[in-house]
Amino acid sequence: MEPVLIYDTTLRDGTQGENVNFSAEEKIKIAKQLDDIGIHYIEGGWPGSNPKDKQFFDLAKQNVFNNARLTAFGSTRRPGISAAADSNLKALVESGTSAVTIFGKSWGLHVKQVMGNTLKENIAMIRDSVAFLKENDREVIYDAEHFFDGYKENSEYAMQTLMAAVDGGAGSIVLCDTNGGSLPFEIESIIKKVQLTLEDKYRQDKGLKPVNVGIHAHNDCGLAVANSIAAVQAGAVMVHGTINGYGERCGNADLTSIIPILCLKMDCPSISGENLSKVKKVSRFVSETANMIPLNNRPFVGKSAFAHKGGIHVSAIMKIPRAYEHINPELVGNKRRVLVSDLSGKSNVKFKARELGVELDGSGYDSSRIVSEVKRLEQQGYQFDVADGSFKILMEKFTEQFKPLFELKSFRVHIEKDKDRLCSSHATIKISVDGLEKITVAEGNGPVSALDNALRKALDKFYPGSLDSTHLVDFKVRVIDGRDGTGSKVRVLIESRDYNDIWSTIGVSEDIIEASWQALADSFQYKLSKMSMP
Hints:
Mean pLDDT: 91
Number of helices: 18
CATH architecture of the largest domain: Alpha-Beta Barrel
CATH class of the largest domain: Alpha Beta
Low-confidence stretches: none
Largest sheet: 8 strands, parallel, barrel
Shape: elongated
Distance between the termini: 45 Å
Strand content: 15-25%
CATH superfamily of the largest domain: Aldolase class I
Structural class: alpha/beta
CATH topology of the largest domain: TIM Barrel
């Protein structure tokens, strides 16, 4: 198949997702990442709608994009005025991008009942707006909003809106499943009919240049990726989407799935193999910038995408990886992971030790002992399949390879509360490193936060700056068995990250502070040991 053009709208449609927001400077950083992996079009925002997007385009003029065409987004002209007098269209031109995307209405329900417009004026608005932008030497991408809903209700009128964009000079027309309610077989069927209608128009007007047909799918039925692939199968040559599927309601088509599918499953190399291996990194960068926790089960780029837990599965992949993996994880910048739990066998432990850099006895003695210990500890409430950091330390202790980079001497946590104030927390901690002791005091938003801050402060005296990039991603507390009420045993799981890695550690105790300390201490031991490795 011919390469498909990838159009990223993370910076515009993606920011319509709940809790997703980027500053103009953050949008520039994301755009540079997208450009680096070879995205063809990057939609920067709507310069006519808000000052932040205008600021982004002003900043973009000071940056060089080597692979992508930066695109400004807006709507057709307003009813009853000329395109040249429309402030939104003028803002698109002033943004300075060589390509612009405008949307127009395809569905009579929106034209008449939502906008209070006429079907005839809507057609004129589309044609006039596209023509105005073409006159200003812009590549025009026309988004046919609600096209599939409009086509199902009145196919003739929906096609008239497309023909208006084609007559105006659009280089691409993108069919939008804006409500996300269409199914793959509907998408494929309708796009094939659109292609046939366009071919008839080209035959009738020999001077008309063919246009690209694209797809813009939303995920309200969980089918945005499937619909996008169905559209490509039907002949679409442009796919719109967002990194991690961020977007309004249930989100947009996820480019971190679409790009690997096109490149690896459909022989449609939309980006190079070298750039494909950067997809996971870009996924993490965008989630980090958005302050969103990465989904472990996200296909291709998620932490669990190539994770194996069952002993039989692990034994098989150690011999033939494709027995339980549909692609090589490294192709998308990911890696194979083996989980260790009470379902594990020696194969899991051997694989995990190799992955984490722990040397085991070649006779299998260490593996057998560790499997037995894991099963014993999981009976007490530990869960090592979600705590790689703690499991590495466990293996090192069992094989006498553990070299603690700090030792706890003592800590004290003080919580104070009176009737007029919120709780305040302070922690005092004493640690030693190579026989040298350090005592520090810190405040925090709660006892665990205070303990975290005090430990960081103490460790910074021995390992300056080593923990600056390390911060908490998630903190979970779960009661293992609630029969003892507030005295029940709890499991604390801490997920931490730095610029390159995410790791998890665990603690179990009847005392929530003790369990938190176990997980916290393991997290910092793991991070510091990573830094000390050659």
